[in-house]
Amino acid sequence: MIDPALIQSVIRVLFAVVIITAAYIISTRNLSTLVSAYAFQSLTLVFMALALWSLEDAPILLAIAIITFISKVLIIPYFITTIQERIRIKRDIEFHFLSPTTSLLLSMGLILFIYIALSNILKDTAARESLFFFGAVIGLSLMLMGMMVTFSRKRAITKVLGYLSMENGVLLFGMFVTELPFIIEFLIVIDLIILVMLTTILSVGLDSTLEEYHDRLHRFHLVEDTEEGS
Amino acid sequence: MIQETLFVIALLVFVAGILIPLATASRDQRIFRIVSHGCTVIGSAALGILALLVLLTGDGLSWTLYQPLPGCSLSVTIDRLAAFFLLLIAAVSACVALYTAEYVEHLEGGSRRNLLCACTNLFILAMALVVVSANTFAFLIFWELMAGCSFLLVMYDYAGPETRKAGIFYFVMTQLSTLFVLLGIVLLYGQTGSFAFTRTGVSLIATLAFIALLIGFSIKAGIIPFHKWLPYAHPASPTPISALMSGVMLKIAVYGLLRFLLDVFSPDLWWGILILILGIVSAVLGIIYALKEYDIKAMLAYSSIENTGIIFTGIGLYVIFASSGQPVIATISLLGALFHALNHAMFKSLLFLTAGSVVHATHTRDIEHMGGLVHRMPCTSALFFVGALAIAALPPLNGFASEILIFISFFSSVAVADPLFKVFLFLCLGLFALTSALSAACFVKAFGSIFLALPRSPESSRAQEVPFLMLLGPALLASACIVLGLFAAQLFLLVGLSVPIPDMFLVGLLLLAMAFLTFAVLYFTASREVRVTGTWGCGTPSLKPAMEYSGHGFSEPIEIIFSTVYRTEMKNERKFFDAKNCIFAEGTADIRLMKIFEEYLYLPVARFSYLAATKISRFQNGCLDTYLLYVFCAVIAIIVYLGWLA
Fold this sequence. Notes:
heterodimer; A: mainly alpha; B: mainly alpha; two-stranded antiparallel ribbon; 24 helices; 5% strand; globular
């Protein structure tokens, strides 16, 4: 039996890793490492679920770890990498409303803001464990940071990654604060896979004529205007 | 129980009346429309019998149709107040259906007429269901159903530009009305925590709910300054629909106000004063505008505003006397208001139907192009005459019977302690009396211009009497006007109420005796000498119909007296050749009746809404990122609320 105190400190380290990956997703302009960052973030969540499982011995946490590993570490990153190879874009340098630096600063403020807000909300609840409280703070922050990615990037593929990262936040929040029923978690994962598959189809185009292919790429902001002639 | 059976029969028959013409909407055959109208008559008869049973025995009915959620259900309850309005709906609907069975065949539109029949049935059913709603949730649902149906009916002749304008105006106003009713009901729900008609105490929320409901019902009832949809919608819609809307739908708004005042609120004195002022202003201005109107249906619409004003006056007096501890006078006022609602439903639908017959025969709505119809359409003119007598509140007809009740409660206001308040009430009494007089003048003008003298247009001289069914419906309404007038005192005794009105039958007999006496005296004393001579025609060789005493001529003196109310705008622009304005070049002169409420109230509000909408619509820029940003901000706002404000 592993010492619970050790597991708790491992979970704290994993929190920090999650935040670092989220910050990376917000600020990076390189698309291929973006997917890796997402896969790594999901893997961190898998470890976190496993750590919690060894702490609480709830089989549902093991199930969550398994499906998260299969879907978010293997399947989804595979699909997205396939798209990227097909549409040959490596960088996303267009931003809306917020630049990466501002986003980073804002997300720091956001974490602090959520920390204070949650302390206010939970101040009367006596059974407030610090680990679970941190889980809630990090989960909510991850969700909001993912949301920031969805509205501050212009490329569809980055938006999808932002959305996926947002879902990771929900999962984290669910693992620590609420008892999310397993079936709902499972459905969300299936939805995510469908979403990514749809993005693949829409990005690449169903038919193979060259004009429409380019048309679609432009319509979904998947290729920069300068590449049009190539 | 017989009440429940009757209600279910009525419901099913009306549903059949809706579905049959809808199912056969592609086939333009008269038989389906006749069946649909038959359903209206049978359904109305069932509703009428049910209403009479409840009125006479006092045994009500409660029934739940459908319960989507705990605490909010579509339930019906028929008490005596609901039964009274149900009777009103049933009586008018049956007569209108008889009329429509013939009228609809003369309308253009092919198989679209089937839809008209279906929608009319749905409209009547919706009005009946509003009245029998047992809770505010059902009330709101059926209220909106009624509003939607009436809009579709107004838009029957959708191709006409006039109809489209009227339709949009009506749609906006009727949705505003629903919005205010919804606001009132939501506020009440916040106060009481249930959708039932339960009594609330005196509180700020209850007062706000009352104001919202009063505005909502006033819009629907056509109370000034929310009246403007009436003179647009009535001329644009088919005649039976005008009759139903004016005769019945306005009363549904009155019912709504009464239901909430009697069952929900604990009214304050100033509520009564507010309702009284709205009522008196509507009554006086309504009839003044009616006098100026030459479109027969618009004139009747303005007259509806006046009559709704009278009903509101009665309700206002009820609230005033009830809150100042004089229940007897309060009851008289309330009965006056209710009785006037019934009477107005009868004579106004009678007038609308006969006016529709006249318009059908002459193809014009301008009363200055009519004339001489008393010889060409004798039955229609007799029926219109009964309606005109009733609406002018002449004894012994029903208009007089109900107005005298309101007069009696006004006279009783000497019992009120506060002298200043007494002066106010007597001022209102004066204005109320003026209304009655002007109403008589208005209908003298209408009857004279439409039916008397010589025809003033070729169509008018070729007019023919309408078919039997188009006379039968109005004839039933006219007999109802006479019966309700002559036996008013007896009818009140029959339902177990004693009111201080004179025995109108006796009054009628006396009046008849007076008429005979006058005729006899004149017959026996008049000279028998026969003298044939031409009328002095101011030196012209022959008199033309255009030289007759016209409606404009008749109302001119009244228009001069009330010229400040009408606010005529005169423009006189001249151009001169020289700098000193001596040699006249050209000029334009324009006399225009200002639409005060439209120009100073409706249009500014509309412009402001448009401006605000333009500003707000910038938020909808079609960019996904912006919408995601809104969601982000909303989430942050929720966290702020939960963390610091909750």
